[in-house]
Amino acid sequence: MMAAPSPNLTEADDDVVVRLEDIHKVYRMGTTQVHALAGVSLSFSRASFWAVMGPSGSGKSTMLNLLGCLDRPTGGRYLLGDQDVGLLDDDALSGIRLQRIGFIFQSFNLIPQLTVQENIELPLYYLGWNAADSALRATELAETVGLADRLAHRPTELSGGQRQRVAIARALSNSPDMLLVDEPTGNLDSATGVQIMEILVELNNQGGTIVMVTHETHVAGYAKQRLHLIDGRIDRVEDGG
């Protein structure tokens, strides 16, 4: 079902994880200005599952970077819960990334010298968890993604699908408000990709909020909502099948 290009921003506050209000992002390259996002207004509700789609240069990566507090908007407001992210300094943004956002990257971004358990525990180390609680949390998450028997292995000893599972477990370690996913099946064969998407669907069914960038229509089909960007603007929003 087709929805309006500018979704309703009047939902109850306790239902909204993220609210974008007239977001602009301009990159300056010498004397040239590139408008990567040009007036995006959108809210992401709790337990929603969004697929962000669009051609190269449409603003997908810019949106993910802004949502992940890896970049700041040039104009407009980004509200994460009741916090105006644009008003925070770099240290506060680092804290937001560590405590409230989970990242899953296409290239996994695991540390090869660390074991599966140590990779999963890494955010908890920076959050100040003690060793016993961290180990218990890592074990629970490894079981969730089907890697309970691989905790002592290193990334080089795992398949691509197993490495992506480790990345998912690591992203969940801090119980994030929002999970940001960049092309989760891009480096995987089709069968393994289906397994990874089924894990994400189950996490969403358990109440997780997911925003996923993908260029693959069949992958976007797992999401509940599909956001199409063109030239930094919302072209349309579709409900999932």
Helix-strand topology string = EEEEHEEHEHHHEHEHEE
Strand content: 25-35%
CATH class: Alpha Beta
**Main structural class:** alpha/beta
Lateral arrangement of strands in the main beta sheet: 1-11-10-4-9-8-7
Q: What's the average pLDDT?
A: 91
Tally of helical segments: 7
Give a description of the structure:
By secondary structure, the protein is of the alpha/beta class. 32% of the residues lie in helices and 29% in strands. It has a seven-stranded mixed beta sheet with strand order 1-11-10-4-9-8-7. Strands 3-2-5-6 form a four-stranded antiparallel beta sheet, with helices on one face. The longest helix has 16 residues, at 190-205. Residues 1-12 have low confidence and may be disordered.
Brief synopsis:
With 241 residues, this protein is α/β, with parallel strands linked by helices. The chain has one domain: Rossmann fold, CATH 3.40.50.300.
Keywords:
241 residues, 7-stranded mixed sheet, alpha/beta, 7 helices, globular, disordered N terminus, 4-stranded antiparallel sheet, Rossmann fold
Topology:
Elements: E1 2-3, E2 16-29, E3 32-45, E4 49-53, H1 60-67, E5 75-80, E6 83-84, H2 90-100, E7 101-104, H3 116-127, H4 131-144, H5 160-172, E8 178-182, H6 190-205, E9 210-213, H7 217-220, E10 225-230, E11 233-239
Parallel strand pairs: 4-9, 4-10, 7-8, 8-9
Antiparallel strand pairs: 1-11, 2-3, 2-5, 5-6, 10-11
